[in-house]
């Protein structure tokens, strides 16, 4: 983190430093180019007799004083004879030795940091650029860019063996061991650099205090960190909530519910007279993305809420049909019980969903278990029960004794049987529910419907139910939990099943 932070500061400071140096050097380059352009014009276009009135007028016209240039001189061999502001220098003024000659087609020569007073610019120190017979006086470069407290710079003019301070912090350039154009020098807390213009005549040396920059930019840095953290937090939250939504059980279930992910388990129902399996309840499971089998307690409400009840029942009916049809299960006609949502309790719909079972009435007898009805329309429900009965479909009231499964339903609907809710048989014999078991059986028996008791988990409970002489069928873990089709096949083929053996032993 520290390294990244230090790298960021280095990068920020170096770009700012470079930008400042380039701004400075662009100004010196512009002056240099203006000088070349104007001096060339003077050499080419001034034709009058040197230092005559006409000559000066021509000089003034050509040298239109572009930005940064003030005074043009006629100075053959470095001796000024006249200038744009002075008709004649008598005696001529010698400009002295040139300091730097810029190689190239223009061959411009420079005299740097000279006293300009003798040529009429009183009190001024500046440079003189000469091309051919003409020269131009260049006033000092004022520092233009605003000072930054953490950045010191010096503008210098350089020759092979000397440098002249032009502005900024004196001695900075000289402090560089080996000042080359575009050198960088990083110490722990400082960054130094030298940049020069394309003529290598002007250079800017700079030295930045890294911690000074960090200090001056602390507010910006802090706000950037806070804003970035805030942005990252919002983004992460959005991604997380999208992922949560996408991978929530409900979304995943509804997205992946199809023929491949639906699974069927089978729980036997035995006839207490023969101790044989005469019916099988089909119970749905759903295969999650990691292949775990999910219990219906987790998804039945989701199916109901999503309005995909008929589609769901169709999926489980098709799956069960395929598995049950693979090999004959029994010589007798087996009753196959399905749970159907109350909203799908409609004759035509049920006949359509279970049409395959109805076409094989020689092997299966279809039974529908009516789970929780909310507000039941008795006449409509009765009509449906009758219509289904006409097609050989049996109906049972499921979970009797809980929720909406009331005695009125048993009395008013011509169902084939009533399944007692498993909570009665599963309760300990001395509990209220346990003690009510026989009373509830007696009450239902008055309606003349056959009785199936669910939740039979022990042999003792099975024998108790048998001893009442009123219960026709039992279902529960004491006989078998819901199993897959292969295990179901084994149970059906077993002539001496566990519940018979236990009954004999008792
Ligand atoms: N509309 C549909 N509803 C369905 C379908 N498949 C199942 N369901 C309903 O989900 C509820 C939970 O079913 P499940 O977890 O399969 O539980 C069944 C049995 O395993 C359980 N049972 C049976 N005997 C015992 C027992 O001795 N002990 C014990 N702890 N549990 C036992 O009872 C459930 C069967 O209940 P029921 O349907 O009332 O006969 C359940 O309410 C199903 O209705 C489906 O395809 N469609």
Question: How is this structure best described in words?
Answer:
The chain has 506 residues and is α+β, with helices and mostly antiparallel strands. The chain has a domain at 250-505: EAL domain (TIM Barrel), CATH 3.20.20.450. Helix content is 40%, strand content 24%. It has helices at 2-45, 53-62, 210-216, 218-247, 249-256, 296-306, 309-325, 347-353, 355-359, 378-390, 407-412, 422-426, 432-445, 459-468, 485-493, 498-505; strands spanning 71-74, 79-80, 82-83, 93-94, 100-101, 109-115, 125-131, 134-138, 151-158, 163-168, 183-186, 190-196, 202-209, 262-271, 276-287, 293-294, 334-340, 364-370, 394-400, 417-420, 450-453, 473-474. The protein has an 8-stranded mixed β-barrel with strand order 14-15-17-18-19-20-21-22, surrounded by 4 helices. A 6-stranded antiparallel sheet has the order 3-1-8-7-6-5. It has a 5-stranded antiparallel sheet with strand order 10-9-13-12-11. The longest helix has 44 residues, at 2-45. The chain is rod-shaped and about 150 Å long. The site of ligand LFPHGCPZ has 26 residues, from strand 15, helix 6, strand 19 and helix 12. It comes from Hyphomicrobium sulfonivorans. One of its GO terms (molecular function) is cyclic-guanylate-specific phosphodiesterase activity.
């Amino acid at each position: 983190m520290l390294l990244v932070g230090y790298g960021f500061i280095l990068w920020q400071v170096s770009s700012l430093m470079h930008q400042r140096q380039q701004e400075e050097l662009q100004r010196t380059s512009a002056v240099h180019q203006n000088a070349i352009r104007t001096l060339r014009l003077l050499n080419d276009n001034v034709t009058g007799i040197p230092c005559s009135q006409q000559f000066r007028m021509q000089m003034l016209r050509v040298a239109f004083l572009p930005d940064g240039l003030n005074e043009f001189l006629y100075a053959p061999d470095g001796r000024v004879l006249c200038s744009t502001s002075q008709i004649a220098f008598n005696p001529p003024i010698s400009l002295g030795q040139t300091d730097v000659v810029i190689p190239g087609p223009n061959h411009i020569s420079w005299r740097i940091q000279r006293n300009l007073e003798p040529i009429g610019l009183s009190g001024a120190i500046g440079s003189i650029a000469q091309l051919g017979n003409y020269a131009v006086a260049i006033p000092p470069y004022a520092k233009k860019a605003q000072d930054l407290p953490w950045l010191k710079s010096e503008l210098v003019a350089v020759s092979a063996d000397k440098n002249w301070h032009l502005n900024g912090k004196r001695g900075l350039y000289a402090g560089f061991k080996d000042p080359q154009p575009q050198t960088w020098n990083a110490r722990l807390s400082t960054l130094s650099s030298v940049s020069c213009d394309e003529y290598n005549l002007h250079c800017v040396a700079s030295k930045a205090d890294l911690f000074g920059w960090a200090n001056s930019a602390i507010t910006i840095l802090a706000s950037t960190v806070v804003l970035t953290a805030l942005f990252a937090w919002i983004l992460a939250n959005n991604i997380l909530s999208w992922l949560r939504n996408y991978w929530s059980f409900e979304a995943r279930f509804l997205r992946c519910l199809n023929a491949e992910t639906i699974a069927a388990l089978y729980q036997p129902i035995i006839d207490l007279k023969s101790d044989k399996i005469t019916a099988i309840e089909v119970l749905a499971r759903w295969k999650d993305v990691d292949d775990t089998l999910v219990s219906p307690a987790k998804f039945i409400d989701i199916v109901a809420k999503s309005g995909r009840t008929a589609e769901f029942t169709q999926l489980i009916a098709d799956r069960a049909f395929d598995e049950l049809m693979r090999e004959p299960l029994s010589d007798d006609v087996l009753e196959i019980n399905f749970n159907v949502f109350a909203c799908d309790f409609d004759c035509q719909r049920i006949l359509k969903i279970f049409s395959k079972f109805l076409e094989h009435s020689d092997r299966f007898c279809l039974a529908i278990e009516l789970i929780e009805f909310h507000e039941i329309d008795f006449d409509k429900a009765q009509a449906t029960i009758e219509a289904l009965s006409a097609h050989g479909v049996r109906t049972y009231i499921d979970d009797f004794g809980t929720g909406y499964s009331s005695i009125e339903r048993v009395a008013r609907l011509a169902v084939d049987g009533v399944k007692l809710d498993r909570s009665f048989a599963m309760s300990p014999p001395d509990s209220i529910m346990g003690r009510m078991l026989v009373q509830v059986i007696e009450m239902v028996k008055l309606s003349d419907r056959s009785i199936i008791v669910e939740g039979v988990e022990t042999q003792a409970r099975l024998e108790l139910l048998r001893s009442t002489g009123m219960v026709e069928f039992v279902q529960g873990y004491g006989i078998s939990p819901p199993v897959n089709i292969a295990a179901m096949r084994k149970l059906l083929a077993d002539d001496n099943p566990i519940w018979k053996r236990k009954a004999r032993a008792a």
